[in-house]
Amino acid sequence: MKVNDRKYQLGWFEDGSVIRQDQDLLDYIQTNGFKSVKIKGDIFLKEQIGDGQLPFDLCVYMVTQPFRFDELINDINQIMRDEMDQRGIMYLAINKYLATADNYDNDLSDDYTDAILEYVSENVNAEIIEYHRHLKDDGTGFNWVHPLTIFYLRKNDN
Amino acid sequence: MVYPVSDELWELIQKDVSKDCLMLFSGSWRYELDIKYIEHQMFEEADLKFHTNTIFVDPNSDIFKYAIRQIKPKTLAIIQSGLFFRYRNIEDIMLDLREFKELIGGGKVLATVPQERIDFNRLKMSLEQMSENIGAILLGNDLVIEL
């Protein structure tokens, strides 16, 4: 998702319209008073969120391009280990339709949203605070602009 | 509510689509093929230059299936239709396509969709594996299903 594509999408609506997920995220940042916020992945909210200094207490990681689950998890674990504050939070939003895997695991649940939760919880070195499943999709939720599969992850103590 | 058609796909459509074809929800304004088209009723007043052979129906109405049965095309095509595919699970899509196949009584069903516009468990199987399971082929980024 390029920044211009995003503006183009919003251009169909009245001035001042925002994507609901964007607003939820901005509200979350404001409510929790994070001091140093970093954006990874797609950076289209950089203007509103800013660009913090190490270590970050919040990392917003948005994935709207094709990705591999194992590479994403490696990246998350590296960020958690090297860049996050002691109890830092990561907001992770992924477009589940753009995913591939390195290995296909038959032990995971048949339901894709369950399988995503199982895969992330087994492999990420962080605590899952919240998981927003992206269930039925009729294309009106702007998933391709700001993905609807969302995790809030907290860095582990160890 | 339609997805782009690549050159590769366009070649395949032209090859597969005969005069006796019915195209569903695929954007009849973008084709000059001399075939029949069904579009969603909600587009009837839209400012688009629909093909003259287009009828408008509500897909949830009885008349929709009746119309397909009456037209009884040799090929029923659903080409890059956001309205039909819209991120639905591939199993649900296949059920609908099989029903269309029954409705047209022996003709061919041809459906194409960008692979990132459908839902399947991408942690349990690859795109290639899923395509094989449903007997589809991949043409560039697009899944081509023939029944």
Task: Outline the structure in words.
The complex is a heterodimer of chains A (158) and B (147). Chain A is α/β, with parallel strands linked by helices. Chain A is built from five helices and seven strands. In chain A, strands 1-2-4-7-6 form a five-stranded mixed β-sheet, with helices on one face. Chain A is globular and about 45 Å long. With 147 residues, chain B is α/β, with parallel strands linked by helices. Chain B has one domain: Rossmann fold, CATH 3.40.50. Helices cover 32% and strands 22% of the residues of chain B. Chain B is globular and about 45 Å long. At the A-B interface, strand 5 and helix 5 of A face loops of B.
Set down the secondary structure blueprint.
The complex is a heterodimer of chains A (158) and B (147).
Chain A: H1 3-10, H2 20-32, E1 37-41, H3 46-49, E2 56-63, E3 67-68, H4 69-82, E4 84-94, E5 99-100, H5 112-123, E6 126-132, E7 149-155
Chain B: H1 7-16, E1 21-24, E2 36-40, E3 54-57, H2 62-71, E4 75-79, H3 82-85, H4 90-104, E5 108-114, H5 127-134, E6 137-139, E7 142-146
Parallel strand pairs in B: 1-2, 1-4, 2-3, 4-5
Antiparallel strand pairs in B: 5-7, 6-7
